[in-house]
Amino acid sequence: MEYTPYERAHHTYEILDTISPSNITFLNQTDPFRLLVSVILSAQTTDRQVNEVASVLFEKYPSVESLAHADIDSVKEIIRSTGYFNAKAKNIIGTAKALLEKYGGVVPFSMEELVKLPGVGRKTASVIIGQLDNQPAIIVDTHFARVVRRLGLTVATDPERIEREVAKLLPPANHYRYSMIVNLHGRQVCHARKPQCGLCQLAPYCKSYPIQ
Q: pLDDT digit string (tens) for 173-202?
C-alpha cells in the first residue's frame, strides 16, 4: 500500500512514541548555558566524547563569566578531542561573551536570538528551545535526516528544507518528540551502513523498505 508523507509521518510517530523512552536526551548537561556549549561542541563528534569533555571544561570554567574570560589556548586543549577545536573554542568563548553583553548571562529561548550567537545554527537552537522551553522544534542532525529521507517524508538534503518539510507533516506539539524518537531510531535500528530493516517496526510505512 502506498502512503502519503503525511500518513507516513503520523504512523511512524505513533509507533516510535509507543516503543521509545518517555524522556530522551543524548547530552548530559541540563543547565541552559552548559547545554548550549555542549551542542556547539557536538558538531562532527560523538555525544559520548562531548559529555566527557564538557565535564572537564565546566569543572575549570563553571559559569558564563568564567568561560567568557577563559584563556583560549586552555579551552582548545580541553576540547581538542572533539575536533575543529580552534573554531569551537573561539565560538564558545564568543557565545559566553555575547550572552554577558547582550542578555545578562542568560540564554535566550528564541530562535532568532540564538542563531545570532557564535557557532549556533538552527539545529543547536532547536535543541535549546525544544528541550528546555518545550517549543516546537525539528532537530535535523545526520540521524534524523537519514531516517526521514528513507521513510519518504522528504527528498531534501538541505537541513533547513528538511526541517520545514517535516514540520508541515505533524502538529507543532509533536515536533520535538518526533525529532528525538526518530534520532534514537536512527542510532539503534536505521543505521547508516546496515539498517536493520528486518527488525524495524516502521518497515510497513518506509519508502525504502526493500520489499516495497
A: 999 999 999 999 999 999 999 999 999 999
Task: Tell me the whole-structure pTM to 2 decimals.
Answer: 0.94
| Separation CA 209–CA 61 (nearest Å) | 48
Catalytic residue selected from 47, 88, 116, 123: 123
Distance CA 130, CA 58 (A): 23
Which grid cell sits at 35?
547545554
Q: Domain 32-133's class?
A: mainly alpha
Q: Which residue has the cell 546496515?
A: 194
97 is catalytic: no
Domain boundaries, the chain: 5-23+137-205, 32-133
Could you give phi then psi for residue 200, rounded to 5 degrees?
-80, 125
In the annotation, is 116 catalytic? Answer: no
Q: Which tens digits make up the pLDDT trace of 51-78? A: 999 999 999 999 999 999 999 999 999 9
Q: Classify domain 5-23+137-205 at the CATH topology level.
A: Endonuclease Iii, domain 2 (1.10.1670)
Cα-based torsion angle of the residue sequence 203, 187, 85, 124 in order, rounded to the nearest 10 degrees? 70
Task: Judge contact between 169 and 6, C-beta under 8 A.
Answer: yes
Cell of 181: 524518537
Q: Which of 141, 158, 168, 194 is catalytic?
A: 141
Residue 212 pLDDT > 60: no
Same CATH fold, 32-133 and 5-23+137-205?
no
C-alpha cell at 198: 528486518
